[in-house]
Amino acid sequence: MSAQWIENEVAPLPKELKIERETHKLEKRLCRNVGQAIIDYNMIEEGDRVMVCMSGGKDSYGMLDILMKMKDRAPIDFTLVAVNLDQKQPGFPDHILPEYLSKLGIEFHIETQDTYSIVKKNIPEGKTMCSLCSRLRRGILYRVARELKCNKLALGHHRDDMLQTFFLNMFFGGKLKGMPPKLTSDNGEFIVIRPMAYVVEKDLIRWAEHRQFPIIPCTLCGSQENLQRKQIGNLLREWDKKFPGRLETMFTALQNVAPSHLMDAKLHDFKNLKATGVPDENGDLAFDEEELPAASALPGGLQVVQL
Ligand code: SF4
User: Fold this and answer.
1) What domains does the chain contain, in order, with CATH numbers?
2) How far apart are CA 28 and CA 6, in angstroms?
3) Is 223 in the pocket of ligand 1 (CB under 6 A)?
4) Cα(147) to centroid of ligand 1, in Å?
5) Tens digit of pLDDT for each residue in 63-116?
6) Ligand 1 atom with the shortest distance to the CA of 130
């Protein structure tokens, strides 16, 4: 009898309503993540002209979409200028982005520069083209930003890109170095921001499907995907599946660095360290084990397992 009552009370939601509710939650989460990153790193300020770099991939479409929503509700005034660099890769559908951006009614610019031919001419067959290609692209984007009077460049990298870069640098580059949410451009002229820093890739994939962005494939140049990046990407996805919450914990760690507990003498003056006689909770625990949160208290259901 009571089971009947309960079953009757919790009639399942119609499928369409469920999808609508999930999509609404997703949109709220994306806006919250982007808004929080903007606040935490003071990414966008009054009067900024932000050049939103559009590749035609899901990440940049998602970034523009969410930034436009944020702009409508922001307490400050700033301008978004969408920019795409058409590198003349064979088969690049050059009508897609102008059509999409025109419909949005946003200020935009398409820069056409045949870097594809330059790269093809200068890089021997079979060698990776990415370093020359991205160097050329960077120079062009800086010039365009200058011409459009933009002071900031927004890139669509998300949390998973940032973790991947961190592990790539550690595993293959011997550096503890990630992909920052905000930094000056290498020529010192602009501020580069990554408003999607707190956004997880899975959310961007779902958002792109929901919004039906006209995605342009990124394999047109024919360059092979970086094998090392692919390996790290697979590793992170595997961890995410096996140990839910691990990526979140690792991302939190990137925002919680203790230079005195690493070994970089440029960041911490180990040579001139003197005992102060004052207890320091961040001092060395000698033989004690580091206290980690109990398994039940770990974020996102993270479990401690014996490897
Ligand atoms: S994948 Fe192709 S377009 Fe992208 S940086 Fe490499 S060469 Fe350039």
Assistant:
1) 12-226 (3.40.50.620)
2) 31
3) yes
4) 24
5) 999 999 999 999 999 999 999 999 999 999 999 999 999 999 999 999 999 999
6) 6
Rounded distance from Cα 222 to ligand 1 centre (Å)? 8
Q: 3-state class of 145 per DSSP?
A: helix
| Residue 58, number of CB atoms within 10 A of its CB | 21
Query: CA-to-CA distance for 143 and 88, rounded, in angstroms?
Result: 18
Q: How far apart are CA 67 and CA 71, in angstroms?
A: 6
DSSP count for the chain of H helices, then E strands: 10, 6
> 67 CB less than 6 Å from ligand 1?
no
Q: Which pair of structure tokens corresponds to residue 271? A: 């040579």
**pLDDT tens-digit series, residues 195-227:** 999 999 999 999 999 999 999 988 778 777 778
The residue whose CA is least distant from atom 2 of ligand 1 is 221
What is the residue whose two structure tokens read 């899975």? Answer: 202
